[in-house]
Structures are given as structure tokens and as C-alpha cells.
Amino acid sequence: MIKPAVARLWFAATAVVVAVGIVTQLFATADLHTGFFDTQRGRVLSVFAYFTIQSNIIVMVTSALLAVRIKRKPEWFWVLRLDGVLCIAVTFVVFHLALSDLQDLEGKAKTADFLLHTVSPVLCVLGWLLFGPRGRTSWRVVQLAVVFPLAWLVFALTLQQLTDGFSMYPFLDVADNGWPRVLFNAAVVAVFFLGLAAAAHLLDERLRGRRR
Q1: pLDDT of residue 59 exceeding 90
Q2: Please, where are the H alpha helices in 31-146?
Q3: Which of 128, 89, 115 is nearest to 27 (CA)?
Q4: Alpha carbons 28 and 113: distance in angstroms, whole number
Q5: Dihedrals φ, ψ of 193, to 5°?
Q6: For 72-104, how does the pLDDT look when each residue is reduced to its tens digit (9 = 90+)?
Q7: What's the CA gap between 172 and 183, in Å, rounded?
Q8: Domain ranges for the chain
Q9: Helix, strand, coil shares, percent, the chain, to 5
Q10: CB 159: neighbour CB atoms within 10 A?
Q11: Nearest 10 degrees: CA dihedral of 61, 8, 1, 121?
């Protein structure tokens, strides 16, 4: 049986990795002199709009809280925990399948990219598989977990219209792809997320049964 201290150490390490990745990304963005936004402040603040960053923030916060105390009861926490696991998994898959070849990074940007798109997802998903905690998911938790990615999608498309073209990801760029293609791309990711959420709940139940 895995000791709680080991689990807490894993969660703490995950939170630290994400924190370092986000801070490194902010410094890397601050060093840029070009981008969609004209000012350094605008470019730095825009970092927090990305799904990758928001997913990592959820992972960081929930992992840090689990590192402090694993046994938590509020349903909202387990919704956020599942959101973190699922969103960071989607981030990993979408980035490595569709986005990684579109950029050529170096220095701080490359380090942040590796931490936020590869190390963080691996640590988070492995941590969930190895340490759980088990038995905290339900179909209600799954349904509530879907709210965040759908809300982010609405936010991203609305922000794109309000800023006259700020698209965080190529497959959501309305100007380049048109609304039908963008909505189709979003639907594909949404279906993938729903399938992943359902699979996570079923797997959690199975792993819980095995431990019993």
C-alpha cells in the first residue's frame, strides 16, 4: 500500500513543476517584442487566457491542496481535481498531435513549453492513477467537470471577436478556418473530453474495486 506521505510528496512536486513552468513562461513572454498585443503588459496578461495555462493552474492548485491534506470532502474540489486531470491530458494530446510542430522555441520559452505541455501532464495523470484518491468521482462530478472546458471555449471565441482576431490556437482561428470548421474542431475536442471524462470515472471505479 502506498503511504500517504509519498502521495503528498508527488502532489507537491507536481505543484512546484507547474509553478516554475508558469513563472518561466511569463518571463519568456515579457522578453518578447512582438505579438498580437502591442504592449508588454498585454502580452503577459494574454498568457492567462490560454487553455494550457488555465489547465495547469487548476492542476497546481488542486495538487498543492492535496499535498497539504489528501482527505477532502467538498464536491467542488473533486470537480476541480477531475477538471485538472482531464484538461491537462487533453492539453498533452492536442499539443503533441497538432501543435508541437508549429513552433520553434529556445531558452526560457522552450523550458516552459516542456514543463507545461509534457512534464506537468505526465506528473498529474500518473499521480491520479497511482495515488487517486479513489472513489471521488461520480456521474454528477463528470457533468460538472464539463462546465469549465465549455465555458473556456465560449470565452476564447468571444475574446477573439472582442480583440478583432486574437486566436490562442490555430484550430480555433475563425479568420483562417471560418465558423463551420472552428465549430467542428471544437466539437471534436469536446467529444474527446466527454469520452475521457466518462472513461476516467469508470476507471476510478475499477481501480477502487481492485484496492478493496
Answers
A1: yes
A2: 40-46, 51-68, 75-94, 107-114, 120-131, 139-145
A3: 115
A4: 10
A5: -65, -45
A6: 778 899 999 999 999 999 999 988 988 777 777
A7: 8
A8: 4-211
A9: 80, 0, 20
A10: 14
A11: 50
